[in-house]
């Protein structure tokens, strides 16, 4: 029998934003107790190696671009050292004291170490065994995948953790991949002065987005001097590194790497950034103790309950494979927390708050390249594949608001419309500072707002949001 101090109402393994939200919502407004287990930094990947530091590295360059494209301004010279200092401020120099203080103030006990399931409602951390009265939540996130390429792992390449924590700007960098992480990393590295070469196995960047999004990001990267080698693979890496422990994230590897490509080209670079996908962190969770096979993902229902252990086990965020985005993990955690609280209090699970639906085709995402890419819902191709009869409305963003925003404004917008319901299934916007247009589109998609109703949502003049009027006008013309 565990000591009373080792019993909690809720135990959460993983103290990133998802785990924090799950613990907070599960005990909010009650005398329930929660433990938050973390083997690294409380605040997780997003706070220290992903969302926050990457945006801190990207936005100064975007502002410098905007100033350089604004008549009446002299432009702004980017200070790489200052950008890194500002990044350090947002990561609090990789110190999680403030996050721990938040958890403590919220009535959540932080336990350091690697949590592992060892039985029903039982978690072991080191030599300590914890028991949950109501629920255990798995929120361990995901980790970068290092492809099985000869010499690559031995060369100690950078992952997103190194690229966001870089100590100094490398001279030359090979970025492996063409997705979101690859495009964002290529953007800030090039902006800070690195020579960047992207090696992309496919024929486009951002392949999950509308085609014009990847095309415009590729054009912008090339203008920054980035070389993009499409249809090419990295086949071998050689690097003469001294033996020893892996260096700290962002530390230079202190020896160049020779990279051989599938077309026979050899490149000598200072660093390699691997952005070739991520996988759920499930290997050491003890899933077998819950009667679950180890694997790359954990299947959950819309209440985030783990299939096969619905009475007590939940999984939120990247670890369940539904939508690998911080804001979606936090959304799932809020739903799971509400479900746990209701079940603990014997309340019925009635109403939409107790079921996650936004990660079924209504997922918003922003790629913070320059230009930004903001999207929600399926692309036209994905909507057709799902069986929808759709109309497509696609226009350049050329309105009074955009012409005022910067002198060289260039953007494009697209709506995917369900003909049967006359509502928007998906929307994509590409352009400078376009991210703030996304929430309006998300509301229209989630709310299934008819186009005739949207016609009366009048965009303010002069703003970039005027593109909504142009899109709706085109939709009226196309429908006749």
Automatic annotation (TrEMBL):
UniProt xrefs under SUPFAM superfamilies: FAD/NAD(P)-binding domain, FAD/NAD-linked reductases, dimerisation (C-terminal) domain
Keywords (A to Z) from UniProt: FAD, Flavoprotein, NAD, Nucleotide-binding, Oxidoreductase
Annotated S-S bridges: 46-51
GO biological process: 2-oxoglutarate metabolic process
UniProt cofactor(s): FAD
Cofactor: how bound: Binds 1 FAD per subunit.
Domain FAD/NAD(P)-binding: 8-332
EC number in record: 1.8.1.4
GO molecular function per UniProt: dihydrolipoyl dehydrogenase (NADH) activity; flavin adenine dinucleotide binding
InterPro entries recorded: Class-I_Pyr_Nuc-Dis_Oxidored (IPR050151), FAD/NAD-bd_sf (IPR036188), FAD/NAD-binding_dom (IPR023753), FAD/NAD-linked_Rdtase_dimer_sf (IPR016156), Pyr_nuc-diS_OxRdtase (IPR001100), Pyr_nucl-diS_OxRdtase_dimer (IPR004099)
Protein's UniProt name: Dihydrolipoamide dehydrogenase
Annotated organism of origin: Naumannella cuiyingiana
């Amino acid at each position: 029998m565990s000591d009373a101090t080792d019993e909690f109402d809720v135990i959460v393994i993983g103290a990133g934003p998802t785990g924090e939200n799950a613990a907070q919502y599960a005990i909010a407004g009650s005398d329930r107790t929660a433990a938050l287990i973390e083997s690294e930094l409380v605040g997780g990947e997003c706070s220290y190696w992903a969302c926050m530091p990457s945006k801190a590295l990207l936005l100064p360059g975007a502002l410098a671009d905007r100033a350089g494209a604004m008549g009446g301004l002299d432009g702004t010279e980017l200070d790489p050292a200052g950008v890194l200092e500002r990044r350090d401020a947002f990561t609090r120099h990789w110190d999680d004291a403030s996050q721990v203080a938040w958890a403590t103030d919220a009535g959540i006990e932080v336990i350091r170490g690697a949590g592992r399931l060892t039985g029903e409602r039982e978690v072991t951390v080191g030599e300590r065994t914890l028991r949950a009265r109501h629920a255990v939540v798995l929120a361990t996130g995901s980790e970068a995948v290092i492809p099985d390429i000869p010499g690559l792992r031995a060369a100690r390449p950078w992952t997103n953790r190194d690229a966001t924590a870089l100590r100094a700007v490398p001279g030359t960098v090979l970025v492996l991949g063409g997705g979101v992480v690859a495009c964002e990393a290529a953007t800030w590295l090039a902006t800070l002065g690195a020579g960047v070469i992207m090696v992309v196995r496919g024929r486009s960047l951002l392949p999950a987005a509308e085609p014009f999004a990847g095309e415009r990001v590729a054009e912008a990267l090339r203008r920054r001097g980035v070389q993009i080698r499409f249809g090419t693979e990295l086949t071998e890496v050689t690097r003469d590194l001294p033996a020893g422990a892996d260096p700290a994230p962002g530390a230079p590897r202190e020896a160049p790497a020779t990279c051989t490509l599938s077309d026979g080209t050899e490149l000598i670079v200072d660093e390699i950034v691997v952005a070739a996908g991520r996988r759920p962190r499930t290997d050491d969770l003890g899933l077998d103790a819950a009667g679950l096979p180890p694997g790359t993902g954990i299947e959950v229902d819309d209440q985030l309950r783990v299939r096969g252990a619905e009475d007590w086990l939940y999984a939120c965020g990247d670890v369940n494979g539904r939508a690998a985005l911080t804001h979606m993990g936090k959304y799932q955690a809020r739903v799971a927390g509400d479900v746990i609280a209701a079940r603990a209090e014997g309340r019925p699970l009635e109403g939409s708050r107790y079921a996650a639906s936004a990660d079924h085709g209504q997922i918003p995402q922003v790629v913070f390249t320059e230009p930004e890419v903001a999207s929600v819902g399926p692309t036209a191709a994905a909507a057709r594949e799902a069986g929808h009869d759709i109309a497509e409305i696609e226009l350049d963003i050329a309105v009074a608001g955009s012409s005022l925003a910067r002198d060289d404004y260039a953007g494009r917008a697209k709506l995917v419309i369900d003909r049967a319901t006359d509502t928007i299934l998906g929307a994509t916007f590409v352009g400078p500072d376009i991210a703030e247009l996304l929430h309006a589109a998300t509301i229209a998609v989630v709310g299934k707002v008819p186009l005739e109703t949207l016609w009366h949502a009048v965009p303010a003049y002069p703003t970039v949001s005027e593109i909504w009027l142009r899109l709706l006008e085109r939709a009226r013309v196309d429908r006749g």
